[in-house]
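Dear H.,

Thanks for agreeing to be a second pair of eyes. The structure we're designing against is below in token form, covering all 326 positions.
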């Protein structure tokens, strides 16, 4: 089942097909717009991370090695924020945070680099028992986000019944339908977060976020399920430009859920951000190779992820690395 299939199934079962007018459309004419709806929310990655603190629960959008808010993750690595609970359909975001020892607990359905099945830093961290893991079925994680987005304590789901998910997560409970069917469900707890970090193709300064690729993933749910949400984007544009060449349905993230917006060109690197750029497979292979050897990883980190660096220097170093490979 694809990410889009999961979303379609969720809307069908929940009865939230999106009918009716948007209470807060991108043009600001909706009746549901809050007092800060037209506030300029643009900020820097450093300003975003300055609002985060140790011990928080942070959700990270994207899917595997696809459209991850890597510029924000890299800025987080440059800070002293640690002891995090991370909720993610995991990729190198989880890997980098695990390698740096910043994760206390991980809630995830998988941690993969897609073309490389298992994220190497995640593998190493799990093998040494570096953090607590709540490993869920993909749909269970989605329903946990739905529950949090709707401010519910849990939602009943069929996913997980009859599987080892229940065995490895003894904290999970089941509920029985109060109706004649009497069916048993997993009571999937809400995955409420202090902050969400997501990456979009485009956004305006008010917080409307647009995806232009083949799949929305669940970035909107991450934003809705969090107390604060920060959107990085490939390009910050005027609001009107968002729908000049794209359908309104591509406006995935609504501004009234967003706390801050950061323009980070190529900010998903080395993950993909279609159609703006593909995954940097060569760099991803170098990342995975370095992860297998402590000395090589130390050299990789010194070059690409120095504590004193910034996103501009990271992008320049990556360009230099590619020139060296030719």
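And this is the sequence the design step returned. I haven't edited it by hand at all.
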């Amino acid at each position: 089942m694809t990410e889009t299939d999961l979303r379609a199934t969720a809307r069908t079962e929940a009865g939230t097909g999106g009918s009716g007018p948007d209470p807060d459309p991108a043009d600001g004419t909706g009746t549901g717009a809050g007092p800060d709806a037209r506030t300029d929310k643009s900020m820097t990655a450093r300003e975003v991370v300055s609002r985060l603190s140790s011990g928080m629960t942070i959700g990270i959008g994207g899917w595997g090695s696809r459209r991850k808010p890597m510029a924000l993750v890299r800025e987080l690595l440059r800070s002293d924020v640690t002891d995090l609970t991370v909720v993610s359909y995991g990729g190198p975001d989880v890997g980098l945070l695990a390698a740096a020892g910043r994760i206390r607990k991980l809630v995830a359905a998988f941690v993969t680099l897609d073309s490389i099945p298992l994220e190497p830093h995640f593998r190493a961290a799990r093998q040494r028992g570096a953090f607590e893991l709540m490993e869920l079925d993909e749909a269970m994680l989605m329903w946990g986000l739905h529950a949090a987005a709707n401010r519910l304590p849990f939602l009943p789901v069929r996913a997980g019944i009859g599987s080892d998910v229940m065995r490895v997560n003894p904290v999970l409970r089941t509920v029985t339908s109060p109706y004649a069917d009497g069916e048993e469900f997993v009571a999937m707890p809400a995955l409420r977060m202090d902050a969400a970090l997501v990456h979009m193709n485009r956004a305006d300064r008010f917080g409307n976020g647009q995806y232009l690729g083949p799949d929305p993933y669940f970035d909107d749910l991450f934003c809705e399920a969090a107390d604060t949400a920060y959107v990085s984007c490939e390009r910050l544009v005027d609001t009107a430009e968002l729908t000049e060449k794209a359908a309104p349905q591509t406006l995935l993230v609504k501004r009234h859920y967003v706390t801050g917006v950061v323009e980070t060109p190529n900010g998903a690197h080395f993950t993909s951000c279609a159609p703006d750029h593909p995954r940097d497979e060569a760099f991803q292979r170098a990342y995975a190779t370095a992860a297998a050897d402590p000395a090589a990883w130390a050299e990789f980190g010194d070059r690409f992820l120095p504590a004193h660096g910034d996103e501009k220097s990271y992008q320049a170093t990556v360009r230099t690395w590619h020139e060296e490979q030719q």
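Two observations from my side: The longest helix spans residues 311-325. The radius of gyration is 20 Å.

Warmly,
E.
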